[in-house]
Amino acid sequence: MTDTSERPAEPDARVPSGVPGLDALLRGGFLRGGTYIVTGAPGTGKTILGNQFCFSTVARGGRAIYLTVMGESHSRMMLHLKSQRFFRQEDVGRALNYESGSAALKSEGLGGLSRLIFRAVREHGATVLVVDGLMALEERSENAPGLREFLHGLCVHNALAGCTTLMLTGQHNDPADPRYTMVDGVIGVTQERFGVKTVRAIEVSKFRGGEQLSGRHSFEITNDGVCVHPRIETLHIPQPLRVPALDERLAFGIPALDGMLTGGLVRESSTLVAGSAGSGKTLLGLHFLAEGARQGEPGLYHGFVESPLRLLDKAERMGLGLREHVEAGRLHLRTRAAAESLPDAMAEELFRHVKQHGTRRLVLDGLASFCQELTDPERTPRFLAALMHELLSLGVTPLAIQQTRPLIAPSGEVLPQGVEVLVDTVLELRQVELRSRRFHVISVPKARESGHDAAWRRFTMTARGIDVEKDSESAEAIFSGRVPARAKPARKSKPKTGVKPARRGKPPRRGGRGE
Protein backbone atom coordinates (compact mmCIF):
# COMPACT_ATOMS: atom_id res chain seq x y z
CA MET A 1 0.00 0.00 0.00
CA THR A 2 1.42 3.38 -1.01
CA ASP A 3 2.12 5.92 1.73
CA THR A 4 0.24 8.97 0.43
CA SER A 5 1.78 11.13 3.15
CA GLU A 6 4.96 11.26 1.11
CA ARG A 7 3.22 13.08 -1.73
CA PRO A 8 1.89 16.63 -1.87
CA ALA A 9 -1.75 17.22 -1.05
CA GLU A 10 -2.23 18.52 -4.61
CA PRO A 11 -0.13 16.17 -6.78
CA ASP A 12 -1.06 17.94 -10.01
CA ALA A 13 -0.26 21.46 -8.73
CA ARG A 14 2.64 22.90 -10.70
CA VAL A 15 5.36 25.33 -9.66
CA PRO A 16 6.79 27.46 -12.50
CA SER A 17 10.54 27.23 -12.83
CA GLY A 18 11.02 30.84 -13.91
CA VAL A 19 13.29 29.55 -16.68
CA PRO A 20 11.89 30.33 -20.16
CA GLY A 21 11.30 27.10 -22.06
CA LEU A 22 11.97 24.76 -19.15
CA ASP A 23 8.30 24.62 -18.12
CA ALA A 24 7.51 23.51 -21.68
CA LEU A 25 9.82 20.52 -21.15
CA LEU A 26 8.14 19.83 -17.81
CA ARG A 27 4.65 20.30 -19.28
CA GLY A 28 3.82 23.09 -16.84
CA GLY A 29 6.58 23.16 -14.22
CA PHE A 30 7.76 21.18 -11.21
CA LEU A 31 5.26 19.32 -9.03
CA ARG A 32 4.64 21.21 -5.82
CA GLY A 33 6.57 19.59 -2.98
CA GLY A 34 8.66 17.48 -5.36
CA THR A 35 12.42 16.96 -5.06
CA TYR A 36 14.57 17.13 -8.19
CA ILE A 37 18.24 16.71 -9.03
CA VAL A 38 19.96 19.01 -11.52
CA THR A 39 23.20 17.39 -12.62
CA GLY A 40 25.97 18.79 -14.77
CA ALA A 41 29.68 19.51 -14.93
CA PRO A 42 31.08 22.80 -13.55
CA GLY A 43 30.23 25.76 -15.77
CA THR A 44 27.08 24.28 -17.28
CA GLY A 45 24.74 26.78 -15.59
CA LYS A 46 23.38 24.89 -12.56
CA THR A 47 23.95 27.73 -10.08
CA ILE A 48 22.32 30.32 -12.33
CA LEU A 49 19.35 28.02 -12.92
CA GLY A 50 18.91 27.44 -9.17
CA ASN A 51 19.06 31.14 -8.34
CA GLN A 52 16.73 31.99 -11.20
CA PHE A 53 14.20 29.55 -9.75
CA CYS A 54 14.48 31.23 -6.34
CA PHE A 55 14.14 34.81 -7.59
CA SER A 56 11.20 33.97 -9.84
CA THR A 57 9.46 32.29 -6.89
CA VAL A 58 9.93 35.40 -4.76
CA ALA A 59 8.66 37.60 -7.61
CA ARG A 60 5.41 35.58 -7.56
CA GLY A 61 5.00 36.10 -3.82
CA GLY A 62 6.69 32.93 -2.56
CA ARG A 63 9.64 32.46 -0.22
CA ALA A 64 12.88 30.66 -1.05
CA ILE A 65 16.07 29.34 0.55
CA TYR A 66 19.35 28.83 -1.29
CA LEU A 67 21.58 26.56 0.77
CA THR A 68 25.23 25.95 -0.17
CA VAL A 69 27.37 23.03 0.94
CA MET A 70 31.13 23.36 0.43
CA GLY A 71 30.55 25.81 -2.42
CA GLU A 72 31.59 29.38 -3.24
CA SER A 73 30.90 32.07 -0.66
CA HIS A 74 27.59 33.89 -0.76
CA SER A 75 29.26 37.27 -1.28
CA ARG A 76 31.09 35.97 -4.33
CA MET A 77 27.89 34.40 -5.65
CA MET A 78 26.08 37.73 -5.27
CA LEU A 79 28.87 39.44 -7.20
CA HIS A 80 28.39 37.06 -10.12
CA LEU A 81 24.60 37.25 -10.03
CA LYS A 82 24.33 41.05 -10.14
CA SER A 83 24.72 41.04 -13.93
CA GLN A 84 21.56 38.92 -14.25
CA ARG A 85 18.33 40.85 -14.82
CA PHE A 86 16.37 38.53 -12.55
CA PHE A 87 18.58 39.49 -9.58
CA ARG A 88 16.99 41.90 -7.07
CA GLN A 89 19.12 42.90 -4.11
CA GLU A 90 16.10 43.99 -2.08
CA ASP A 91 14.79 40.39 -2.00
CA VAL A 92 17.96 38.98 -0.43
CA GLY A 93 17.58 38.48 3.30
CA ARG A 94 13.83 38.99 3.16
CA ALA A 95 11.88 36.60 0.96
CA LEU A 96 15.06 34.91 -0.28
CA ASN A 97 17.55 33.69 2.30
CA TYR A 98 21.02 32.30 1.64
CA GLU A 99 22.17 29.68 4.14
CA SER A 100 25.35 27.65 4.53
CA GLY A 101 25.22 24.03 5.58
CA SER A 102 28.97 23.44 5.68
CA ALA A 103 29.38 23.83 9.45
CA ALA A 104 26.43 21.57 10.28
CA LEU A 105 27.65 18.92 7.84
CA LYS A 106 31.17 18.95 9.27
CA SER A 107 30.14 18.85 12.91
CA GLU A 108 26.97 16.76 12.86
CA GLY A 109 27.03 14.93 9.53
CA LEU A 110 23.98 14.31 7.36
CA GLY A 111 21.68 14.20 10.38
CA GLY A 112 22.73 17.68 11.46
CA LEU A 113 22.29 19.02 7.95
CA SER A 114 18.79 17.52 7.78
CA ARG A 115 17.82 19.27 11.00
CA LEU A 116 19.21 22.57 9.72
CA ILE A 117 17.20 22.28 6.47
CA PHE A 118 13.95 21.32 8.22
CA ARG A 119 14.29 24.20 10.69
CA ALA A 120 15.09 26.75 7.95
CA VAL A 121 12.13 25.66 5.80
CA ARG A 122 9.80 25.91 8.80
CA GLU A 123 11.10 29.26 10.14
CA HIS A 124 11.15 31.02 6.73
CA GLY A 125 7.97 29.41 5.44
CA ALA A 126 9.90 28.46 2.29
CA THR A 127 8.01 27.22 -0.74
CA VAL A 128 11.23 26.59 -2.68
CA LEU A 129 14.56 25.15 -1.54
CA VAL A 130 17.77 24.86 -3.57
CA VAL A 131 20.60 22.75 -2.16
CA ASP A 132 23.84 23.49 -3.99
CA GLY A 133 26.44 20.78 -3.46
CA LEU A 134 24.93 17.30 -3.38
CA MET A 135 28.33 15.85 -4.30
CA ALA A 136 29.73 17.15 -1.02
CA LEU A 137 27.03 15.22 0.83
CA GLU A 138 28.09 12.04 -0.93
CA GLU A 139 31.70 12.64 0.05
CA ARG A 140 30.76 13.20 3.71
CA SER A 141 28.41 10.21 3.80
CA GLU A 142 29.86 7.16 5.52
CA ASN A 143 27.86 4.73 3.38
CA ALA A 144 25.27 4.58 0.60
CA PRO A 145 22.35 3.73 2.94
CA GLY A 146 23.11 6.89 4.91
CA LEU A 147 22.79 9.04 1.78
CA ARG A 148 19.58 7.27 0.75
CA GLU A 149 18.14 7.85 4.22
CA PHE A 150 19.01 11.55 4.02
CA LEU A 151 17.38 11.92 0.61
CA HIS A 152 14.30 9.97 1.68
CA GLY A 153 13.83 12.15 4.74
CA LEU A 154 14.26 15.31 2.70
CA CYS A 155 11.73 14.16 0.10
CA VAL A 156 9.13 13.23 2.73
CA HIS A 157 9.55 16.38 4.81
CA ASN A 158 9.44 18.84 1.91
CA ALA A 159 6.52 17.04 0.29
CA LEU A 160 4.49 17.50 3.47
CA ALA A 161 5.67 21.12 3.77
CA GLY A 162 4.80 21.83 0.13
CA CYS A 163 8.36 22.97 -0.49
CA THR A 164 9.70 22.23 -4.00
CA THR A 165 13.38 21.29 -3.84
CA LEU A 166 16.21 21.37 -6.36
CA MET A 167 19.49 19.64 -5.55
CA LEU A 168 22.46 20.68 -7.68
CA THR A 169 25.34 18.28 -8.24
CA GLY A 170 28.26 17.57 -10.53
CA GLN A 171 28.12 15.28 -13.53
CA HIS A 172 27.24 11.69 -12.61
CA ASN A 173 26.49 9.09 -15.27
CA ASP A 174 25.81 5.97 -13.19
CA PRO A 175 22.13 5.00 -13.73
CA ALA A 176 22.27 2.83 -10.58
CA ASP A 177 23.06 5.88 -8.43
CA PRO A 178 20.63 5.74 -5.45
CA ARG A 179 20.06 9.49 -5.76
CA TYR A 180 18.21 8.99 -9.04
CA THR A 181 15.78 6.47 -7.57
CA MET A 182 14.87 8.54 -4.51
CA VAL A 183 13.90 11.82 -6.14
CA ASP A 184 10.96 12.86 -8.31
CA GLY A 185 12.97 13.99 -11.29
CA VAL A 186 16.42 14.33 -12.82
CA ILE A 187 17.50 17.13 -15.17
CA GLY A 188 20.88 16.96 -16.88
CA VAL A 189 22.72 19.97 -18.33
CA THR A 190 25.76 19.61 -20.58
CA GLN A 191 28.15 21.72 -22.58
CA GLU A 192 29.62 20.13 -25.69
CA ARG A 193 31.99 21.25 -28.41
CA PHE A 194 31.12 20.99 -32.10
CA GLY A 195 34.17 22.14 -34.03
CA VAL A 196 35.01 25.55 -32.60
CA LYS A 197 31.50 26.07 -31.28
CA THR A 198 30.23 25.18 -27.81
CA VAL A 199 26.58 24.17 -27.45
CA ARG A 200 24.65 23.82 -24.19
CA ALA A 201 21.99 21.12 -23.93
CA ILE A 202 19.41 20.11 -21.33
CA GLU A 203 17.49 16.85 -20.92
CA VAL A 204 14.76 15.77 -18.49
CA SER A 205 15.71 12.11 -18.06
CA LYS A 206 13.19 11.46 -15.29
CA PHE A 207 10.00 13.18 -14.22
CA ARG A 208 7.76 11.27 -11.83
CA GLY A 209 4.04 12.08 -11.81
CA GLY A 210 3.76 13.70 -15.22
CA GLU A 211 4.85 13.64 -18.84
CA GLN A 212 7.77 15.61 -20.22
CA LEU A 213 9.32 16.50 -23.57
CA SER A 214 11.95 13.83 -23.96
CA GLY A 215 15.33 14.12 -25.61
CA ARG A 216 17.96 16.85 -25.66
CA HIS A 217 17.10 20.50 -26.14
CA SER A 218 19.39 23.50 -26.51
CA PHE A 219 19.68 26.33 -24.02
CA GLU A 220 21.74 29.48 -23.60
CA ILE A 221 22.86 31.71 -20.75
CA THR A 222 22.42 35.44 -21.25
CA ASN A 223 21.89 38.46 -19.00
CA ASP A 224 18.32 37.18 -18.64
CA GLY A 225 19.64 33.96 -17.13
CA VAL A 226 19.08 30.46 -18.47
CA CYS A 227 16.76 30.25 -21.48
CA VAL A 228 15.74 26.83 -22.84
CA HIS A 229 14.75 26.37 -26.49
CA PRO A 230 12.74 23.16 -26.90
CA ARG A 231 13.08 21.38 -30.24
CA ILE A 232 10.27 22.84 -32.34
CA GLU A 233 9.30 19.43 -33.74
CA THR A 234 8.43 18.32 -30.18
CA LEU A 235 6.37 21.45 -29.46
CA HIS A 236 4.64 21.96 -32.78
CA ILE A 237 3.39 18.51 -33.64
CA PRO A 238 1.71 18.64 -37.06
CA GLN A 239 -2.07 18.73 -36.90
CA PRO A 240 -4.49 18.58 -39.86
CA LEU A 241 -4.60 21.98 -41.54
CA ARG A 242 -7.56 23.40 -43.39
CA VAL A 243 -7.61 22.66 -47.08
CA PRO A 244 -6.42 25.82 -48.85
CA ALA A 245 -8.90 27.48 -51.19
CA LEU A 246 -7.36 27.28 -54.66
CA ASP A 247 -9.16 30.46 -55.75
CA GLU A 248 -7.38 32.53 -53.06
CA ARG A 249 -4.20 33.58 -54.84
CA LEU A 250 -1.30 35.78 -53.79
CA ALA A 251 0.27 37.43 -56.82
CA PHE A 252 3.87 38.51 -57.36
CA GLY A 253 2.85 41.52 -59.41
CA ILE A 254 4.74 40.03 -62.38
CA PRO A 255 2.02 39.32 -64.97
CA ALA A 256 3.69 36.49 -66.86
CA LEU A 257 4.84 34.69 -63.68
CA ASP A 258 1.42 35.06 -62.08
CA GLY A 259 -0.01 33.58 -65.28
CA MET A 260 2.33 30.59 -64.96
CA LEU A 261 0.92 30.08 -61.44
CA THR A 262 -2.72 30.46 -62.51
CA GLY A 263 -2.96 33.79 -60.72
CA GLY A 264 -0.27 33.44 -58.05
CA LEU A 265 0.59 31.30 -55.05
CA VAL A 266 -2.26 29.62 -53.19
CA ARG A 267 -2.87 31.42 -49.90
CA GLU A 268 -1.42 29.57 -46.87
CA SER A 269 0.70 27.30 -49.02
CA SER A 270 4.47 26.90 -48.82
CA THR A 271 6.88 27.71 -51.63
CA LEU A 272 10.55 27.02 -52.28
CA VAL A 273 12.56 29.32 -54.56
CA ALA A 274 15.74 27.50 -55.60
CA GLY A 275 18.57 28.90 -57.67
CA SER A 276 22.26 29.66 -57.80
CA ALA A 277 23.90 32.84 -56.56
CA GLY A 278 22.89 35.87 -58.61
CA SER A 279 19.89 34.18 -60.22
CA GLY A 280 17.39 36.72 -58.83
CA LYS A 281 15.94 34.80 -55.87
CA THR A 282 15.99 37.65 -53.35
CA LEU A 283 14.60 40.13 -55.88
CA LEU A 284 11.76 37.74 -56.63
CA GLY A 285 11.03 37.54 -52.91
CA LEU A 286 10.95 41.35 -52.65
CA HIS A 287 8.44 41.41 -55.52
CA PHE A 288 6.24 39.05 -53.51
CA LEU A 289 6.38 41.27 -50.44
CA ALA A 290 5.91 44.52 -52.36
CA GLU A 291 2.78 43.25 -54.08
CA GLY A 292 1.40 42.05 -50.75
CA ALA A 293 2.08 45.42 -49.12
CA ARG A 294 0.23 47.15 -51.96
CA GLN A 295 -2.71 44.87 -51.16
CA GLY A 296 -2.51 45.77 -47.46
CA GLU A 297 -1.10 42.40 -46.35
CA PRO A 298 1.57 42.59 -43.60
CA GLY A 299 4.85 41.10 -44.77
CA LEU A 300 8.19 40.07 -43.30
CA TYR A 301 11.60 39.56 -44.87
CA HIS A 302 13.76 37.37 -42.62
CA GLY A 303 17.26 36.94 -44.00
CA PHE A 304 20.83 36.21 -42.99
CA VAL A 305 23.07 38.15 -45.38
CA GLU A 306 21.80 41.45 -46.77
CA SER A 307 21.02 44.24 -44.32
CA PRO A 308 17.67 46.09 -44.41
CA LEU A 309 19.37 49.21 -45.80
CA ARG A 310 20.88 47.27 -48.70
CA LEU A 311 17.56 45.61 -49.41
CA LEU A 312 15.78 48.96 -49.48
CA ASP A 313 18.45 50.37 -51.80
CA LYS A 314 18.11 47.36 -54.12
CA ALA A 315 14.33 47.68 -54.12
CA GLU A 316 14.51 51.40 -54.93
CA ARG A 317 16.83 50.77 -57.88
CA MET A 318 14.36 48.19 -59.18
CA GLY A 319 11.38 50.49 -58.73
CA LEU A 320 9.61 48.34 -56.14
CA GLY A 321 8.99 51.18 -53.67
CA LEU A 322 9.42 49.20 -50.45
CA ARG A 323 10.48 52.15 -48.31
CA GLU A 324 7.00 53.61 -47.94
CA HIS A 325 5.62 50.24 -46.84
CA VAL A 326 8.42 49.79 -44.28
CA GLU A 327 7.82 53.28 -42.89
CA ALA A 328 4.08 52.57 -42.70
CA GLY A 329 4.70 49.33 -40.76
CA ARG A 330 3.15 47.11 -43.42
CA LEU A 331 6.50 45.47 -44.11
CA HIS A 332 9.35 44.49 -41.81
CA LEU A 333 12.90 43.68 -42.89
CA ARG A 334 14.96 41.65 -40.46
CA THR A 335 18.48 40.31 -40.86
CA ARG A 336 20.44 38.32 -38.33
CA ALA A 337 23.69 36.37 -38.40
CA ALA A 338 23.13 32.64 -38.58
CA ALA A 339 26.53 31.88 -37.10
CA GLU A 340 26.46 31.11 -33.36
CA SER A 341 22.64 31.13 -33.42
CA LEU A 342 20.44 28.35 -32.15
CA PRO A 343 17.97 27.18 -34.82
CA ASP A 344 15.14 26.60 -32.34
CA ALA A 345 15.69 30.06 -30.85
CA MET A 346 15.52 31.62 -34.33
CA ALA A 347 12.30 29.73 -35.05
CA GLU A 348 10.73 30.91 -31.76
CA GLU A 349 11.72 34.48 -32.58
CA LEU A 350 10.13 34.16 -36.01
CA PHE A 351 6.87 32.79 -34.58
CA ARG A 352 6.69 35.63 -32.04
CA HIS A 353 7.11 38.26 -34.76
CA VAL A 354 4.42 36.67 -36.93
CA LYS A 355 1.95 36.64 -34.03
CA GLN A 356 2.79 40.18 -32.94
CA HIS A 357 2.50 41.81 -36.36
CA GLY A 358 -0.08 39.55 -38.01
CA THR A 359 2.32 38.63 -40.82
CA ARG A 360 0.63 37.14 -43.90
CA ARG A 361 3.49 37.03 -46.42
CA LEU A 362 6.92 35.80 -45.37
CA VAL A 363 10.18 35.57 -47.29
CA LEU A 364 12.71 33.37 -45.54
CA ASP A 365 15.93 34.19 -47.37
CA GLY A 366 18.38 31.40 -46.59
CA LEU A 367 16.62 28.19 -45.71
CA ALA A 368 19.95 26.45 -45.19
CA SER A 369 20.96 29.05 -42.60
CA PHE A 370 18.19 27.82 -40.33
CA CYS A 371 19.62 24.31 -40.49
CA GLN A 372 23.39 24.76 -40.69
CA GLU A 373 23.68 25.18 -36.92
CA LEU A 374 21.76 21.98 -36.15
CA THR A 375 24.11 19.73 -34.21
CA ASP A 376 22.20 16.68 -35.47
CA PRO A 377 21.85 16.77 -39.29
CA GLU A 378 19.19 14.05 -39.12
CA ARG A 379 16.90 16.65 -37.52
CA THR A 380 16.78 18.74 -40.70
CA PRO A 381 13.65 17.20 -42.33
CA ARG A 382 11.73 17.16 -39.04
CA PHE A 383 12.83 20.68 -38.17
CA LEU A 384 11.80 22.12 -41.54
CA ALA A 385 8.50 20.25 -41.52
CA ALA A 386 7.65 21.67 -38.08
CA LEU A 387 8.77 25.15 -39.13
CA MET A 388 6.59 25.20 -42.24
CA HIS A 389 3.60 23.61 -40.51
CA GLU A 390 3.59 26.13 -37.69
CA LEU A 391 3.86 29.07 -40.10
CA LEU A 392 0.93 27.74 -42.14
CA SER A 393 -1.13 27.23 -38.99
CA LEU A 394 -0.52 30.90 -38.14
CA GLY A 395 -2.06 31.95 -41.47
CA VAL A 396 1.27 32.74 -43.17
CA THR A 397 2.16 32.08 -46.80
CA PRO A 398 5.91 31.38 -46.54
CA LEU A 399 8.31 31.68 -49.47
CA ALA A 400 11.64 30.06 -48.60
CA ILE A 401 14.76 30.82 -50.61
CA GLN A 402 17.41 28.15 -51.03
CA GLN A 403 20.70 28.67 -52.84
CA THR A 404 21.86 25.77 -54.97
CA ARG A 405 25.50 24.98 -55.57
CA PRO A 406 25.97 25.21 -59.34
CA LEU A 407 26.52 28.80 -60.43
CA ILE A 408 25.72 27.97 -64.05
CA ALA A 409 23.25 25.15 -64.65
CA PRO A 410 22.47 24.55 -68.31
CA SER A 411 20.71 21.30 -67.48
CA GLY A 412 20.17 18.72 -64.77
CA GLU A 413 18.61 18.65 -61.32
CA VAL A 414 19.62 21.54 -59.07
CA LEU A 415 17.01 21.38 -56.33
CA PRO A 416 18.21 20.56 -52.79
CA GLN A 417 17.54 16.91 -52.11
CA GLY A 418 14.55 16.24 -49.88
CA VAL A 419 13.46 19.83 -49.32
CA GLU A 420 11.11 20.04 -52.29
CA VAL A 421 8.83 17.34 -50.86
CA LEU A 422 8.07 19.51 -47.83
CA VAL A 423 6.61 22.43 -49.80
CA ASP A 424 3.59 22.90 -52.03
CA THR A 425 5.23 24.89 -54.82
CA VAL A 426 8.73 25.04 -56.28
CA LEU A 427 10.09 27.90 -58.38
CA GLU A 428 13.41 27.15 -60.02
CA LEU A 429 15.72 29.88 -61.30
CA ARG A 430 18.74 29.20 -63.49
CA GLN A 431 21.52 31.04 -65.21
CA VAL A 432 22.35 29.56 -68.61
CA GLU A 433 25.61 30.38 -70.37
CA LEU A 434 25.48 30.76 -74.16
CA ARG A 435 28.19 32.27 -76.36
CA SER A 436 29.92 34.03 -73.47
CA ARG A 437 26.64 35.48 -72.24
CA ARG A 438 24.39 34.53 -69.34
CA PHE A 439 20.63 34.31 -69.56
CA HIS A 440 18.13 33.96 -66.71
CA VAL A 441 15.27 31.47 -66.93
CA ILE A 442 12.51 30.45 -64.52
CA SER A 443 10.25 27.41 -64.25
CA VAL A 444 7.49 26.05 -61.98
CA PRO A 445 8.32 22.32 -61.76
CA LYS A 446 5.85 21.74 -58.92
CA ALA A 447 2.58 23.29 -57.76
CA ARG A 448 0.66 20.87 -55.57
CA GLU A 449 -3.07 20.64 -56.31
CA SER A 450 -2.87 23.67 -58.58
CA GLY A 451 -2.66 24.20 -62.30
CA HIS A 452 0.61 25.69 -63.52
CA ASP A 453 2.78 26.15 -66.59
CA ALA A 454 5.98 24.16 -66.10
CA ALA A 455 7.69 25.44 -69.28
CA TRP A 456 10.84 27.49 -68.91
CA ARG A 457 10.55 31.25 -69.44
CA ARG A 458 13.32 33.72 -69.92
CA PHE A 459 13.34 36.72 -67.58
CA THR A 460 15.39 39.87 -67.25
CA MET A 461 16.09 42.22 -64.35
CA THR A 462 15.26 45.77 -65.35
CA ALA A 463 14.77 49.15 -63.71
CA ARG A 464 11.16 48.06 -63.12
CA GLY A 465 12.15 44.81 -61.42
CA ILE A 466 11.83 41.32 -62.88
CA ASP A 467 10.29 41.03 -66.34
CA VAL A 468 9.23 37.49 -67.33
CA GLU A 469 8.52 36.85 -71.00
CA LYS A 470 4.99 35.94 -71.98
CA ASP A 471 5.90 32.61 -73.62
CA SER A 472 8.64 29.99 -73.67
CA GLU A 473 9.96 30.75 -77.17
CA SER A 474 13.10 32.60 -76.07
CA ALA A 475 13.87 29.98 -73.40
CA GLU A 476 13.58 27.24 -76.01
CA ALA A 477 16.03 29.11 -78.19
CA ILE A 478 18.52 29.38 -75.31
CA PHE A 479 18.35 25.66 -74.47
CA SER A 480 18.71 24.88 -78.20
CA GLY A 481 21.93 26.90 -78.34
CA ARG A 482 20.43 29.80 -80.28
CA VAL A 483 20.55 33.37 -79.04
CA PRO A 484 16.92 34.53 -78.69
CA ALA A 485 15.76 37.15 -81.16
CA ARG A 486 15.36 39.97 -78.65
CA ALA A 487 18.81 39.28 -77.29
CA LYS A 488 20.60 39.67 -80.67
CA PRO A 489 22.89 42.69 -80.79
CA ALA A 490 21.63 45.46 -83.08
CA ARG A 491 23.42 45.83 -86.44
CA LYS A 492 25.54 48.96 -86.49
CA SER A 493 24.46 51.50 -89.14
CA LYS A 494 27.02 53.30 -91.27
CA PRO A 495 27.45 57.00 -90.62
CA LYS A 496 25.97 59.35 -93.25
CA THR A 497 28.65 61.82 -94.32
CA GLY A 498 27.41 62.85 -97.82
CA VAL A 499 30.62 61.54 -99.37
CA LYS A 500 30.27 58.66 -101.76
CA PRO A 501 32.56 55.86 -100.75
CA ALA A 502 35.38 54.97 -103.08
CA ARG A 503 34.69 52.19 -105.57
CA ARG A 504 36.45 48.98 -104.83
CA GLY A 505 38.67 47.50 -107.49
CA LYS A 506 41.93 48.51 -109.08
CA PRO A 507 43.31 51.80 -107.83
CA PRO A 508 43.15 54.65 -110.36
CA ARG A 509 46.15 54.91 -112.62
CA ARG A 510 48.40 57.79 -111.73
CA GLY A 511 50.43 59.99 -114.05
CA GLY A 512 48.30 59.93 -117.25
CA ARG A 513 48.26 62.36 -120.20
CA GLY A 514 47.82 66.01 -119.30
CA GLU A 515 49.21 65.58 -115.79
Question: What structural keywords apply?
Answer:
nine-stranded mixed sheet, disordered C terminus, 22 strands
What order do the helices and strands come in, and which of them pair?
Blueprint: E1 14-15, H1 22-25, E2 30-31, E3 35-39, H2 46-59, E4 64-68, H3 74-81, E5 96-100, H4 102-124, E6 128-132, H5 134-140, H6 144-161, E7 164-169, H7 178-182, E8 185-194, E9 197-207, E10 216-222, E11 225-229, H8 232-235, E12 249-250, H9 255-260, E13 265-266, E14 271-275, H10 281-294, E15 299-303, H11 308-317, H12 322-327, E16 331-335, H13 343-357, E17 361-365, H14 367-371, H15 380-393, E18 397-403, E19 425-434, E20 437-447, E21 457-462, E22 465-468, H16 473-479
Parallel strand pairs: 3-7, 3-8, 4-5, 4-6, 6-7, 14-18, 14-19, 15-16, 15-17, 17-18
Antiparallel strand pairs: 1-2, 8-9, 9-10, 10-11, 12-13, 19-20, 20-21, 21-22
Describe this protein's structure.
This protein is an alpha/beta fold and 515 residues long. It has helices at residues 22-25, 46-59, 74-81, 102-124, 134-140, 144-161, 178-182, 232-235, 255-260, 281-294, 308-317, 322-327, 343-357, 367-371, 380-393, 473-479, and strands at 14-15, 30-31, 35-39, 64-68, 96-100, 128-132, 164-169, 185-194, 197-207, 216-222, 225-229, 249-250, 265-266, 271-275, 299-303, 331-335, 361-365, 397-403, 425-434, 437-447, 457-462, 465-468. α4 runs parallel beside α6 (144-161). The radius of gyration is 34 Å and the shape is elongated. The chain starts with 13 loop residues before the first strand and ends in a 36-residue tail after the last helix. Residues 1-9, 407-416 and 487-515 have low confidence and may be disordered.
